[in-house]
Structure formats: C-alpha cells, structure tokens
Inverse folding.
C-alpha cells in the first residue's frame, strides 16, 4: 500500500530521486502514471494540490488577461488532485479526420499523427473513461436510446451531418483512481508540492532537476531520469517559459513557439429560427439533453473543405413564451385522470423505479407535444483556428512561490469569423430549403464574435506538436524538441482542437505516450 506523501508535513530531505517524474496529477498525469506503473516502471507523481480544493493553492492559478474577455484564470481550471477533471462535464468525442489535417489557410502543418495511428489509443481511452465505443455513430446511439432516427438531417441534406458526444458519467480522475494509486507500489504520489522550474544541464540538452516548493516555504530538488509535464495546457507553457536560466526565453522556446496558439472551443448565440412542424424535435437541445444525449448539427467535411473552413456545429436552444409554459404545466396533471390502463400501470412502476428517468421521459417529452418553442436561438461552436497571437506569456508580477504569473491573450482570426458565418449560413439555407423554419439572421462579424464569445473551459495549444522544431514545441512523441529527457502531456500539444471536448484525446494521446516511454525504457 502506497501512502500519499504530504510535502508540507513529511520529512522529504533536500532531494527527491525518481526514475520518471510526472508533474501534475490531473487527467493526463494520472493516466500516464497508471499506464507506466502497469509496466512496472517507477513513477514519482508530483501534485501541487491536496486531495481536495484549498484556497491558497488554487490562488496560484491567478493570472493576468488581455484580448477577448475570458473566464477568470483562477476559477476555470483546478489545482488539486484530479485537476480540472474535478469539475468537468464529461462530454467525450474523438477528433474527426478533418481535425488532423494541415491548416493550409494559415500555413500550418496538421497533426504529425493521424486518426488511423491513434485509433487503438482512442479505443483504450474509451475503456479508461468507461464509455461505449459507438460514439462516432449518432444513429446507433439514438436508436439504442429508443429514438426514431429516420429524421436525422443527413438523410435529407448532403450538406448537414449530425454529431454527438458521449458522457463519461463516472470519471472524476482524482477520486476514481486514488485508491488504485494507493494500492500501486510503482507510484509514489507527493501532494502539496509545486514544481516551479526545470533546470537544464550546461549543454541545455537534459533536464537535470526540477525545483519544487511548498506554500509553507520548503524547497525540494527533484532528480529524475526523465520528466513529463502534465500540469494542464496553460501551466505546461508557464513552466517551460519560467525555466529560462540556461535557455533564454524558456526551455523548448528556440523558435518562439512556447505559449503560442492557445485555443478554446469558442461558442456564442446569434440568430433565431422560428421552427415549422417539420423541424425534428431531436435537435432541440433540451429534448435530448434530458436523456443525457445530444444531437448537434454540423456540416459535411466535403463542404468544409470546399469552403476552406474549420469544424463547426450548431445547437438549437429553445425559447418559450412564459404563458405557454405555465399553461402546458397546468395541463399535465390532467393526464393522471385518464382511465387506468396497463400502460399507465407500467408507467407508474417505471416512475417509482427511476423517478429521474420517468420525469425526463414522460414530463419533458410531453412538454414538446403541447408547446412549440416560440423560436430557437442558434448556438454556434467551432474549432478555433490556431493563432500565434492568442498566447500565454509571463507577467512581471509573481505569486507566493516566486513564479511569474501567466498572462493570457485570447483572440481570433478572420478564419474563425468565416467558419462561424459559413456554418450559420449553411444551416439556415438547408433548413429553410427543407421547410423546417424561418430564420432571422444576424451577420457574424469579428466585432460580434469578440463581443459575445465564451469558452468551454477547454484549454489547448501552447506547446504545439510538430515534426518541424520551427513550428512546434514537441515532436510526434511529445518530447520537447532539443531536450533529450523532457516530454509534455495534455492538450497543450494539440496542433488543432477540433470541436470536441479535449479530454478524450488527452487520454488517448497519453496512453500513446505511455507506450512510447515504456518502449524507450526497454531500449535503454
Ligand atoms: C467546468 C469544466 C467543464 C469541463 N467539461 C469538459 C467536458 O465536458 N469534456 C471535456 O473533454 N473536457 C472538459 N473540461 C476540460 C477537462 O477538465 C480538461 O481537459 C482536463 O482536465 C485536462 O487534463 P490535464 O491533465 O491536462 O489538466 P488538469 O486536469 O487540470 O490537471 C493538471 C494537474 O496539474 C497540477 N499542477 C499544475 N501546476 C503544477 C505544478 N507547477 N506542480 C505540480 N502540479 C501542478 C494541477 O493541480 C492539476 O491537478 C472541463 C473543464 C472544466 C473546468
């Protein structure tokens, strides 16, 4: 049985020795530690926080922000055991083939690995996340949930495609894997210990140590054969930038790439659709949301390529007139006075066995029979174009540990505007042609985007993966270019973000990294 070492209380001594030191015990760090341990590789897992959230540690995430307003950096990610996965919503989907492609419009290469190479790791990620493997097939998923799929819009328009996510219901990485880690003799977990800097050898080719501190004032030097940064997309860049003693501008930053191309999954609401009876209720966000499913309307890859845009989807957010809702709710009890039947008996049994499910199935579904939304607001979401000016740098101000604060500048390019606008126009054009609704369209401009956009707490980019050191920070195996024993795990390595939540791809890529590190050890 391993004990979790609290760096603040334990006698650590000035030096901690390790074979592989993983910095950060979030989705990526925990996945990697478990995989390496399964291959009998010894791991030191260093986590800044404790088992649960604590104010002073969380405050180390405070940062400065410029550009398009973004969430407070101290609250849009979490600095304790399990990391940001402690608050994640669990929506999972792997990249689509187009997401791996070069961004020719921007002169940027695509992912150095493709979907085929990643397929076995995506399959492994579904097991880790305890989700089914049919997440690519909305029809199969909807059929299994008992829905009629004849109304899927791709059956009526070659320009439209339905995309869905799957919910990982049970996985909060911290609590889920803590007992497994406690029982694992190959993992040494140390908590309340913040890595603040990496130290390179005199040639700048190897990390010889990581300097780590506690908020109580202890300093520890971690010496390891190899290091993996798994500290979350923004912090991975911060640690590299902060480690500038032997490497001006920070480690891996010879080509001035560290921190650049910060990406989110931007979303905002614009334009309305007044639905006709022909619009399938399946696409009403609330309707399927009650079944923990979703059907998002995307556009075909062919059209995306033809128009030179990135991944896009639209959700239909119902807006009801207040009086109609209250009238519908007041009508519902009448159903209880309908003559008893076997069906009613069955329903009562179901309701008693699964009150939540029954509520969703019988009440919310019924609402749709009685009430047409007045209109739908269109909610648009895209793959943000990599933008070198959307970036993480360091501010002058320092935190309690002496580390410089991060400064996040979030901004967009014309390609983002084009993607949103083309997506909206395509959806409106196709649904109008099918007689499914009338549209009141707002022109999508850069000003509108900057004014309304929100993120999804999905942080990507900043240590981009590329075979070419001039265009990225890590290579295809997530090793920092030019440094022999330093790797980066997590969505900071994503060259582009697709429009899916990043965690499934983080887990898949981390399984792949674990295989690579294990093979590397065997060779050594
Ligand atoms: C509200 C919310 C909803 C979300 N919903 C979804 C969703 O539906 N689908 C989806 O795919 N994703 C979602 N996400 C994103 C998801 O949580 C992240 O993609 C994922 O947790 C990132 O994993 P990670 O290991 O890279 O970082 P994290 O999980 O954040 O882990 C990083 C770890 O490193 C530690 N650390 C940081 N700095 C240091 C340091 N210097 N020294 C030591 N340790 C350090 C942190 O304490 C943390 O434990 C959501 C996030 C939030 C906040």
């Amino acid at each position: 049985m391993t004990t979790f070492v609290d760096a603040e209380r334990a006698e650590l001594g000035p030096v901690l020795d390790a074979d592989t030191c993983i910095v950060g015990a979030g989705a990526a760090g925990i996945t990697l530690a478990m995989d390496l341990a399964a291959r009998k590789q010894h791991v030191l897992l260093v986590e800044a926080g404790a088992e649960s959230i604590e104010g002073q540690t969380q405050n180390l995430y405070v940062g400065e922000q410029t550009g398009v307003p973004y969430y407070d950096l101290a609250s849009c990610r979490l600095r304790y055991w399990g990391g940001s996965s402690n608050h994640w919503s669990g929506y999972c989907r792997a990249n689509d083939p187009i997401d791996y492609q070069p961004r020719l419009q921007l002169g940027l290469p695509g992912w150095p690995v493709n979907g085929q190479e990643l397929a076995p790791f995506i399959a492994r990620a579904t097991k880790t996340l305890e989700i089914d493997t049919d997440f690519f097939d909305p029809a199969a998923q909807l059929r299994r949930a008992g829905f009629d799929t004849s109304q899927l819009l791709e059956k009526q328009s070659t320009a439209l495609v339905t995309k869905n996510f799957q919910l990982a219901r049970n996985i909060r990485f911290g609590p889920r894997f803590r007992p497994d880690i406690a029982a694992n003799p190959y993992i040494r977990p140390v908590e309340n210990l913040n890595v603040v800097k990496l130290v390179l050898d005199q040639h700048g080719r190897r990390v010889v140590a990581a300097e780590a501190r506690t908020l109580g004032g202890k300093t520890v030097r971690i010496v390891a054969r190899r290091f993996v940064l798994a500290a979350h997309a923004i912090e991975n860049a911060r640690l590299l930038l902060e480690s500038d003693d032997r490497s001006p501008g920070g480690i891996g930053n010879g080509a001035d790439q560290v921190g650049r191309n910060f990406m989110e999954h931007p979303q905002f609401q614009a334009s309305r659709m007044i639905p006709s009876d022909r619009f399938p209720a399946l696409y009403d966000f609330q309707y399927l949301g009650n079944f923990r499913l979703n059907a998002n309307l995307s556009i075909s890859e062919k059209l995306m390529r033809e128009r030179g845009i990135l991944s896009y989807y639209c959700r239909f957010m119902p807006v009801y007139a207040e009086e109609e809702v209250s009238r519908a709710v007041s009508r519902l009890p009448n159903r209880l006075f309908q003559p008893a039947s076997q069906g009613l008996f069955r329903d009562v049994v179901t309701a008693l066995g699964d009150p939540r499910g029954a509520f969703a199935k019988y009440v919310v579904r019924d609402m749709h029979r009685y009430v047409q939304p007045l209109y739908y607001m269109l909610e648009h979401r895209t793959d943000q174009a990599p933008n070198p000016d959307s970036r993480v740098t360091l501010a002058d101000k320092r935190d309690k540990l002496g580390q410089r604060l991060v400064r996040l500048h979030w901004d967009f390019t014309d390609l983002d505007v084009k993607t949103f606008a083309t997506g909206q126009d395509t959806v409106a054009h196709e649904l109008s042609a099918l007689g499914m609704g009338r549209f009141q369209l707002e022109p999508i401009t850069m000003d509108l985007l900057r004014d309304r956009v929100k993120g999804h707490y999905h942080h990507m980019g900043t240590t981009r993966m590329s075979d070419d050191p001039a265009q990225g920070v890590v290579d295809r195996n997530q090793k920092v270019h030019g440094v022999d024993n330093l790797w980066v795990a997590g969505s900071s390595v994503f060259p582009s973000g697709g429009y899916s939540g990043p965690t499934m791809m983080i887990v898949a890529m981390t399984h792949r990294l674990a295989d690579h590190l294990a093979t590397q050890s065997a060779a050594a």
User: Anything to note?
Assistant: The first strand starts at residue 5 and ends at 6. Residues 23-29, 46-49, 76-77, 79-80, 83-85, 87-92, 194-195, 230-232, 235, 239, 457-458, 490-491, 501-504, 506 surround flavin-adenine dinucleotide (CB under 6 Å). The chain has 14 helices and 19 strands.
